[in-house]
Amino acid sequence: MAAKLGHVKTWEENMMICFFLISIHVVTIAGRAVTAVGSAATGGGGGDVNYMQKLDVQRHLNKLNKQAVKSIESSDGDIIDCVLISNQPAFDHPELRNHKIQMRPNFHPEGRTNLEEESKVSSISKRIMSQLWQESGSCPNGTIPMRRTKEDDLLRAKSIQQFGKKKQKSIPQSTSSSQSQSEVISQITGHEHAIVYVQGDKYYGAKATINVWKPNVQQSNEFSLSQIWLLSGTFGQDLNSIEAGWQVSPDLYGDDNTRFFIYWTTDSYRGTGCYNLFCSGFIQTNNEIALGATISPLSGFGGSQYDITILIWKDPKQGNWWLQFGNDKVLGYWPASLFPNLADSATVIEWGGEVVNSESNGQHTTTQMGSGHFPDEGFGKASFFKDLQVVSEENKLLPPSDISTYTDKSNCYNVKSGYSSTWGNYFYYGGSGRNPNCP
């Protein structure tokens, strides 16, 4: 059962009792004190707004940060709370409060694994199976690791309601069936992509091994990410999307670290869904991987290359959409009941990179995608996806057919696909953003 918020009500009662008597209140949440200044008695309107904002922030922090069995301080400044599985944010969702947790999938997709490939290229490309916080401790069985949300995280957001959500500038009313969803999104919102995609069939999952870098992000309201999308529905209306990958997002995390993330929406990013565990939805069952935590180590230009493997698939029996990190770490699932348009299958799969181009001062952003280098530079310099696979209705991993590529501005970010016996279907992608050919 989710944590109860009884002490929040107590604070609201205390605020009313002391409304005209005090001007400084200390609000304590999860053992941390925050001072909120201002009261109506002072007549300072700005102070009133500040106080109410502080109260809203603390109330939301209390909702996000569940009671910890154990807390771990990471060297990157994160605090990882080990929270009982039954107390995670998912069960705040009205439809999931009586949900019976499925601790493991009934079926796992069958097909090619990375083991053959790994033995051939282990000297040049290495699998990442760790996060930075793991150097400082581990979470016990029966708990999940949750990155603690801090006051500053919420204050960076445009609003508390928008915290942890993708920002969309405007929403179109319809899409052309000949366009990929990323093509439509980028035309409307200023998000730019370099992707490969498949559509026109039923897809029950997707997999890829993704090269991990630390791209430069020009300003805090932009991001750079590399991910897998599973999509069904119409953008701007009822698009259902399940997403996972790595990202650099200063606004969301307060730094430029490369972090593992997930995202979901059922209404085309308008109201439902969020990153990681910032809202109720995804049910985590694994005690080793923290969503939103820093990935380490990272690839270096001309040096060692590191990658992560991500698999998302639908359990044929119960219909839940499962997430796996690496070859054996099953992290948890998105309940089938969340996704009306993914109830059967996805209709589009996309793999690739995305950045926000805010066009500051009328110029294209210098935010990098991938490694910040273009596909033609190849291994060790450009970022890549390899071993692309889709899951069939028979729950088998298969190479995708009829792969298409798309980029918004090839002089800013580009993509180049190929096939080899060791990498299967792969592509290089990315770029520097603003340059002499991308003004």
TrEMBL record:
Residue ranges constituting the Neprosin PEP catalytic domain according to the UniProt record: 185-439
Alphabetized Pfam families for the sequence: Neprosin, Neprosin_AP
Compositionally skewed regions (Low complexity) per UniProt: 170-183
Top-level lineage group: Eukaryota
Classification via InterPro entries: Glutamic_endopeptidase (IPR053168), Neprosin (IPR004314), Neprosin_propep (IPR025521)
Region (Disordered): 162-183
Protein name, UniProt field: Neprosin PEP catalytic domain-containing protein
Native source species: Acacia crassicarpa
Taxon lineage: Eukaryota, Viridiplantae, Streptophyta, Embryophyta, Tracheophyta
